[in-house]
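Summary for the lay section of the report: proteins are chains of building blocks that fold into shapes. Here we show the chain for tryptophan--tRNA ligase and then a coded description of the shape we predicted for it.
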Amino acid sequence: RPRILSGAQPTGALHIGNWLGAIRNWAELQHSHETFLCVVDLHAITAAHDPIELLKNTRTTAALYLACGIDPEHSTVFIQSHISAHSELCWLLNCVTPLNWLERMIQFKEKSIKQGNNVSIGLLDYPVMMAADILLYNADFVPVGEDQKQHLELARDIAQQRINSRFGNPEKPIFKVPQALIMKEGARIMSLSDGRNKMSKSDPDINSRITLLDNPDLVTKKIKRAKTDSTIGLEFGNPSRPEADNLLTIYAILSGKGMEVASLECAEMGWGTFKRILTEAIVSALHPIQTKYKELMNDPKYLDDILRKGSLKACMVADETLGRVQDALGFLRKE
Ligand code: AQP
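The coded shape description reads as follows.
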């Protein structure tokens, strides 16, 4: 079976963008693919972080994977920092990756503007660590949101141009070169406060996102405050109406009606009525996730057990790949 690898950062409660753009794809693909899913805690410290929050969010993120339908019988779920090969391979890749490949990454440019003088080397190096995450598991596909597409391209370039072609043999490449898998709908869910910005965990405005743990009152409040425009009727694809496009996309997916039915239903609807049905669709889609999440958080041993088993399996695959790269680069093996 083809293999997939993906993950999310434990930088806060996951939001509906993370779910619609990535996690729901993982839940579907796990039945036809060998699936490795990690909580990328090493990535989460590339911006200033609070240790207590990181600890809490790492467990929350793993529990939310399961609550969203990730089944440990079908997927290997683990914590990135539990597998030391991620950091070790990252160093090896750092030493062959040109600095200017990293300086042109859009996410680095955007995040470094926000962080001013506090930009860390880790933030610049984020895509190399991501390449290590993916390449360690010989992934065929990486299901991600649109925002990660450029990082995936970089991982492919590092694998092909900097490792396989320099140190490998065309018959037997060192790394498998992965492909991005991006959803047709929901790959880029936008902020509720500004339809031109991506919904993001790290946006200081908490009203800009709906998290998977928001209760019905909070969802109602956030959707009431969500930015609208002065036109009646919802529509897709009008560049001057990004908020209408975004909220209709969320409605089409979460109501289960799909783009065509949703656009007919809402074509002449006023914003007040639309916001009511959108709220209902979000609340009922989140209900089963929140119920499962509560059960999981009440049984910490169950979650620990899944993460322990996940780490054991991930470690075997990752160590094997790391050994192969170390040999190819000329490192003396420890006897
Ligand atoms: N707005 C989004 N729409 C669709 N997909 C999204 N993803 C993120 N935001 C959206 C996808 O979710 C997966 C996990 O993301 P991540 O935690 O690795 O980090 P990110 O891409 O940087 O997402 P955030 O929420 O904006 O986090 P912060 O603010 O901490 O940087 C990825 O597959 C991502 O594409």
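Put simply, here is one thing we learned. The mean pLDDT is 96.
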